[in-house]
Design goal:
This protein is mostly helical. It has ten helices and no strands. About 45% of the residues are buried.
Length: about 325
């Protein structure tokens, strides 16, 4: 008698391996640790030491040169930043997430907006103080609240927009965050270290938020059939992400090298506050340093977002 065997069930769909997911988490942890160390380093070097304060103060006083003309551009940029601005950003990000049917993205945006802005205020007002060595007011202003608000809004939008829009948002967001930071310097509201620390605070929370949508949401690899064709082997937006990352890295490299030369020159000066040339050098170096950190931060966040997607994160309808 011939026995009839039931057909074996199809093999379960494969999911990306733990190695790729582990790499995404490892890169995120590394970025968080480096950025957090940068925040602490800014305070210890430029607030906690007398010479660091003098270099930072030189950049602030250099901003007074030509301020009348530049303030006409800087003031409208700063006027945008407010509590209402952040509330509007939360609503806008929630609306985009609703349209894309991705509430995890709304949570990620909220993590950035809430975490970054609360952290900045806690660090500035409750954790750190400013030793009085005669370089400006004796109250602490690091990190910059205006820069944190502007950069966190830009990162929140970066997280919720569809993949095709992400490269544009990354470049424009870096530009907006950098412009806000420089505007606070132009208005003599903040020193360069305040702005750089704020950008790094946002980078910490932005990196953590990149992994929020990945919780419990993984793509299954489906075997292509006539009914389920494979349209493309490349994730949507990969080329655009790469272009944005390269562009931002080039901007960061150029601004970073030029700004570092100016700041090193100021640092090694016997008296950074001695003359007009020293003040302008410190001012230019500080402004370029802000541009470099803003561009680098957004390049890193795009890369982390892409890494999370490659690890199995479904990016939602585009």
């Amino acid at each position: 008698m011939t026995s009839v065997h039931a057909p074996l069930p199809p093999a379960p769909a494969r999911v990306p391996g733990a190695r790729r997911s582990g790499a995404a988490v490892a890169w995120t942890v590394l970025v968080v640790l480096v950025a957090a160390s940068g925040v602490v380093g800014c305070w210890r070097l430029f607030v906690g030491t007398e010479h660091g304060q003098s270099v930072d103060q030189a950049a602030l006083e250099g901003a007074h040169i030509g301020q009348t003309t530049l303030w006409q551009v800087a003031e409208p940029v700063l006027d945008v930043v407010s509590v209402g601005f952040i509330v509007a950003a939360v609503l806008a990000c929630g609306t985009i997430a609703l349209i894309r049917r991705r509430w995890s993205l709304a949570i990620a945006a909220t993590v950035v907006l809430g975490g970054a802005n609360i952290s900045t205020q806690v660090l500035k007002k409750l954790v750190w103080d400013r030793p009085d060595w005669g370089h400006g007011p004796d109250f602490n202003t690091l990190p910059s609240g205006h820069t944190t608000a502007a950069a966190s809004v830009a990162v929140a939008v970066l997280l919720v927009v569809p993949p095709r829009a992400r490269p544009w948002v990354a470049v424009l967001g870096a530009g907006y965050a950098g412009a806000t930071g420089i505007s606070t310097l132009v208005g003599q509201w903040h020193r360069p270290s305040d702005v750089v620390a704020a950008l790094l605070v946002v980078l910490v929370w932005g990196a953590l938020a990149c992994l929020v949508p990945a919780v419990g949401v993984r793509e299954h690899r489906v075997t292509p059939t006539a009914a389920v064709p494979v349209v493309s082997r490349h994730p949507v937006g990969r080329t655009g992400d790469r272009v944005a990352i390269v562009l931002l890295l080039l901007i960061s490299l150029g601004a970073g090298i030029t700004g570092a030369l100016g700041l090193v020159s100021t640092w090694h000066a016997a008296d950074p506050l001695a003359d007009r040339a020293s003040l302008l050098t410190a001012y230019g170096g500080g402004a370029l340093g802000i541009v470099a950190v803003a561009a680098l931060s957004f390049a890193v966040l795009v890369a982390l977002r892409r890494s999370a997607v490659a690890a199995g994160l479904r990016d939602g309808p585009s």
